[in-house]
């Protein structure tokens, strides 16, 4: 029995050139021009001292992308199509003593829709979209020499109900010839090493289906990751012919009453989405040490799951998850499939081989058949795949289409064991999404977020190691990501970061943005996680994404694999027990009918009370009986404290306490910390929230209001206002007056008397150009020092303080300069993906008139924001600050 390693130095001939290449690797790593798709002719010379015809000779390829023909000593001995599965080619008739010439002719995925290898039709998943559609011999190659016979395939399944490891086995041709002569001469020995390292041995006759009894079955779970190691040896007349070693484990999974039960215990998924992106290798092949660092880092941050999204990791990734007690969600690589004559056949041929790769590992608990599929893949095909997996393991939890058919115009008739959504909302819109999709009339199933909650941070490129990375190269022949994103009519502009920022004139401003963006990231994720944990119908989530990639910087870890936030802060919102602050229930009678009364959970008027409901999600596995304490602090000063008893059963998501904490009266804004702690004899869990308080505004100094949109209902409760109905009434104004308006009209500014100042609240498109962009997602907000913003008690960036006035449009800096000339930004947005620059609050002069213009939603009204201006504390205070500033400028 001998295994000859064929990795290492090969030659490859392609595009009229020949180079040496170290296998395994992506062929793109040696290509100057990566825009070449084949053929590639790989060649390896190896030597065999002698040949015995009683032996079997098998070439084993762990992974080749995409199509290949295998030629040994001038004889074609096999071919293969696929990216992800390993394959074996019998070489008995082609090997020879002495020198052997192995050639592998490879065609890699391409960008030609008429090609049989178009990358959207070869089940490549999402790898091309965040890295590239790599090609070549990307995993190991070996020649296995076995005496008499060999184990060609061994597929283990750990059957807890049968207390056995069941094997499906295929053996080499030599075995069958020998078996014909005397089947009793062949046998299989299985040695099972138990989790406690004790061993048991069983000898079996040679069959295609084998069952290895296990007397001491210990279930695998995250808390007790019991792993078995099995060595299977094939014998012929007492001679060892072949050996296979695998690991795995037993566990029982089922769904009951909308819960996922793992060995009978409820399991709440706290996962990280993994795209398998390791750009330095151009392959989804981290080292063993990198995998271990990732998994230990995730556990430190409170995660218990990894979702491999549309790709397959190395086998040791599953093995380490088994050992460390981390659950795996495996998604099969079907995304944006291109319908052609090849697609359907590939799905049916390749999916069974993909299942062989991972189904033995107890870590794998959920399998999704594809991601965000439209109707290109019909429900008949998805139901066939559903049955295919269930026949392998009836207990496996299956999702037909991660993201859901209803959200992506997919086939709605496919079977699925769970609800799975991919919500990437702006914060004020999240609550409504959750309420709508938890409708009680639907069939009761666990609801999981297959992916959600991305939060981009700012990654400088110039003068860092990324400046020379292939994915920052503008040449499409060297950076295939650019070609991929042309398919979306978009570009991948990270290679132009400095150029774009310089074109906006802000290159000198980017210092400190990375740190600001990380603080904003934590705020955003905190809000979404706490809201998620407040809904008992939701049984888990996967945060996008585990690490930064060329396309996006929403990683839990940065490009170096280092966490972007402190473990203690993350565990508060990503642990077994999470306390969240949810809004107070209320209603308001408006225009003849009841409406829900949305209030800003983070901003209050001085002297009012912070009201809300503390909700606890207890997934600790124990009953929590003790006390809940609520404290309001100003730094180290304790302002108020309240305490009450609590009792929370395991698995419950319930209201913990209804709070009402009065805020002190004050003369200037204040930032408080609201703390909640649940503690008992052997436990203590806590969380905290920042709360801003503003003096009550009551101004007797008149302002004029031209409000065509009705955005300032209730303004008279705070300011002395004279409303202007139309342009004919502006003659009332005189120098020194201030006009607040929602109208964008050049005629308005032209007709106003000299010396009149303006505050323009831009509600949409008009004479002042706007751009529609998300507020919390994909961008970093910096607040500059200015007499207006200095009065806000802000944190330097748009934190949750801006929840009630966040908006979906802003001033593009270049367009604003064309409109107003030079201007001053008070609150600026830097796009973390395309590096464009927008502003939310600006000061400029036009027609010798000082103007403050903003796109901030001072009247709220979006999602869970306060319903109007009068109930929006930050909006009232911000308007007060703008008015005071303009009055000060007038007096000067």
Written account of the structure:
There is one protein chain. It is globular, with a radius of gyration of 32 Å. It has five domains: 2-147, Jelly Rolls; 152-248, Sandwich (Immunoglobulin-like), CATH 2.60.40.10; 261-460 and 511-575, Glycosidases (TIM Barrel, Alpha-Beta Barrel); 580-694, Sandwich (Immunoglobulin-like), CATH 2.60.40; 699-886, Rossmann fold. The longest helix has 21 residues, at 513-533. 45% of the residues are buried. Strand 48 and strand 49 (837-846) form a beta hairpin. The chain is built from 14 helices and 50 strands. Helix 3 (288-300) runs parallel beside helix 4, helix 5 packs parallel to helix 6 (379-392) and helix 7 runs parallel beside helix 10 (513-533). With 892 residues, the chain is an alpha+beta fold. Helices cover 17% and strands 35% of the residues. Strands 41, 42, 43, 44, 45, 46, 47, 48, 49 and 50 form a ten-stranded mixed beta sheet that branches. Strands 27-26-25-24-23-30-29-28 form an eight-stranded parallel beta sheet, covered by helices on one side.
């Amino acid at each position: 029995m001998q295994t000859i390693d064929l990795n290492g130095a090969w030659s490859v001939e392609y595009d009229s050139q020949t180079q040496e290449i170290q296998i395994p690797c992506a062929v793109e790593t040696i290509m100057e021009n990566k825009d070449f798709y084949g053929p590639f002719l790989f060649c390896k010379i190896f030597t065999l001292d002698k040949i015995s015809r009683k032996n079997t000779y098998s070439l084993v390829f762990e992974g080749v992308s995409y199509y290949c023909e295998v030629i040994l000593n001038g004889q074609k001995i096999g071919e293969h199509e696929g990216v992800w599965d390993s394959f074996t080619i019998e070489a008995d008739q082609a090997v020879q003593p002495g020198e052997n010439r192995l050639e592998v002719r490879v065609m890699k995925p391409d960008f030609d829709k008429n090609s049989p290898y178009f990358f959207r039709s070869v089940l490549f998943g999402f790898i091309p979209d965040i890295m590239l559609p790599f090609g070549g011999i990307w995993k190991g190659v070996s020649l296995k020499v076995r005496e008499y016979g060999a184990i060609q395939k061994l597929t283990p399944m750990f059957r807890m109900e049968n207390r056995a490891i069941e094997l499906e086995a295929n053996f080499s041709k030599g075995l069958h010839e020998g078996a014909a002569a005397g089947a009793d001469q062949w046998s299989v020995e299985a040695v099972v090493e138990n989790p406690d390292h004790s061993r048991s041995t069983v000898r079996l006759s040679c069959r295609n289906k084998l069952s290895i009894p296990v007397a001491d079955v210990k279930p695998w779970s995250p808390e007790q990751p019991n792993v078995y190691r099995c060595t299977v040896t094939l014998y012929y007349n007492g001679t060892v012919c072949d050996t296979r070693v695998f690991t795995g484990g037993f566990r029982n999974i089922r769904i009951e009453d909308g819960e996922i039960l793992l060995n009978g215990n409820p399991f709440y998924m706290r996962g990280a989405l993994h795209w398998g992106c390791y750009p330095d290798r151009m392959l989804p092949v981290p080292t063993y040490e990198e995998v271990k660092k990732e998994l230990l880092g995730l556990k430190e941050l409170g995660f218990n799951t990894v979702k491999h999204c549309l790709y397959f990791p190395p086998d040791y990734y599953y093995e380490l998850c088994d050992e460390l007690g981390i659950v795996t969600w495996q998604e099969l690589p079907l995304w944006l499939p291109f319908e052609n004559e090849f697609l359907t056949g590939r799905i049916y041929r390749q999916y069974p081989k993909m299942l062989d790769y991972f189904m033995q590992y107890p870590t794998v608990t959920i399998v999704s058949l594809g991601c965000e599929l439209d109707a290109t893949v019909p429900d008949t095909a998805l139901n066939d795949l559903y049955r295919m997996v269930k026949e392998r393991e009836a207990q496996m939890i299956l999702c037909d289409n991660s993201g859901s058919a209803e959200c992506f115009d997919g086939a709605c008739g496919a079977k699925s064991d769970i609800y799975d959504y991919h919500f990437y909302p702006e914060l004020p819109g999240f609550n409504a999404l959750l309420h709508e999709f938890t409708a009680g009339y639907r069939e009761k199933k666990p609801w999981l977020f297959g992916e959600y909650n991305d939060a981009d941070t700012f990654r400088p490129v110039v003068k860092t190691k990324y400046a020379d990375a292939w994915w920052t190269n503008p040449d499409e022949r060297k950076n295939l990501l650019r070609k991929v994103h042309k398919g979306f009519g978009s570009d991948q502009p990270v290679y132009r970061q400095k150029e774009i920022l310089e074109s906006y004139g802000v290159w000198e401003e980017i210092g400190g943005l990375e740190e600001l963006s990380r603080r904003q990231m934590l705020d955003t994720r905190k809000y979404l996680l706490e809201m998620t944990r407040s809904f008992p119908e939701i049984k888990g989530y996967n945060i996008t994404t585990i690490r930064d990639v060329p396309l996006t910087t929403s990683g839990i870890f940065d490009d170096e694999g280092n966490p972007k936030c402190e473990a203690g802060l993350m565990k508060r919102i990503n642990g077994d027990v999470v306390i969240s602050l949810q809004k107070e229930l209320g209603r308001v009678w408006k225009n003849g009918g009841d409406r829900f009364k949305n209030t800003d959970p983070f901003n209050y008027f001085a002297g009012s009370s912070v009201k809300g409901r503390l909700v606890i999600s207890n997934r600790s596995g124990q009953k929590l009986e003790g006390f809940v304490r609520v404290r309001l602090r100003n730094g180290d000063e304790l302002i108020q404290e309240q305490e009450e008893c609590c009792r929370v059963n395991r698995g419950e998501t319930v209201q913990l306490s209804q709070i009402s904490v009065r805020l002190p009266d004050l003369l200037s804004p204040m930032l408080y910390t609201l703390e909640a702690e649940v503690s008992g004899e052997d436990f203590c869990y806590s969380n905290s929230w920042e709360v801003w308080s503003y003096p009550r505004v009551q101004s007797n100094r008149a302002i004029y209001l031209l409000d065509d949109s009705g955005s300032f209902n209730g303004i008279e409760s705070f300011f002395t206002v004279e409303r202007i109905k139309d342009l004919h009434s502006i003659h009332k104004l005189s120098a020194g007056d201030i006009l607040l308006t929602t109208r964008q009209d050049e005629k308005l500014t032209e007709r106003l008397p000299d010396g009149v100042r303006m505050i323009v609240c831009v509600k949409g498109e008009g004479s002042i150009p706007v751009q529609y962009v998300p507020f919390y997602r994909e961008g970093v907000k910096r607040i500059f020092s200015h007499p207006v913003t200095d009065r806000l008690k802000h944190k330097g960036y748009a934190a949750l303080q801006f929840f009630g006035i966040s908006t979906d449009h802003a001033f593009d800096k270049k367009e604003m300069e064309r409109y107003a000339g030079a201007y001053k930004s008070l609150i600026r947005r830097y796009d973390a993906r395309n590096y464009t620059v927008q502003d939310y609050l600006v000061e400029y002069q036009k027609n010798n008139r000082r103007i403050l213009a903003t796109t901030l939603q001072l009247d709220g009204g979006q999602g869970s924001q306060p319903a109007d201006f009068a109930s929006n504390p930050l909006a009232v205070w911000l308007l007060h600050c703008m008015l005071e500033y303009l009055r000060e400028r007038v007096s000067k």
